[in-house]
Amino acid sequence: MAAPTVELIQGVPLFAGADDRFLEQLAGEFMERTYAAGETIAQEGEVGRTFVVIERGEVTVTIRGQEVGRLGAGDAFGEMALIDKSARSATVTADTEVHGYQLPVWSFRPFLESHPEMAWALIEALAGRVREAESRSIPATS
Fold this sequence. Notes:
By secondary structure, this protein is α+β, with helices and mostly antiparallel strands. It has helices at residues 6-10, 20-27, 79-84, 105-114, 117-137, and strands at 31-35, 40-42, 50-56, 59-63, 66-71, 76-77, 91-94, 98-104.
């Protein structure tokens, strides 16, 4: 089974500061996946167990049925699943055929424990997602 390239993983803000050796090891933990257009990749409310990096294709992100974003090649989602395996905060649906890689939480945790510097990058990525979500929920003032 193919693994993502170091360049693809390094393009994800979560892993941008990681060294090549770490990324090469981590790449081997990802599972290759292809999704058909229209297929649900992640369902809001389901337990999150994977982090996904998109190599090619496009997806739509919805929360409570409302479109909140689109992702494409080089984008990723599911960072919160790497931390707490809580319910997915959004639904991600393939608009086109999507080829990507999933990193299961049980593979990531040992890597994080052996590379504590990555914890800070994960915290920053999650803080960015929270700020993004807050900006969508705060009504504009005139």
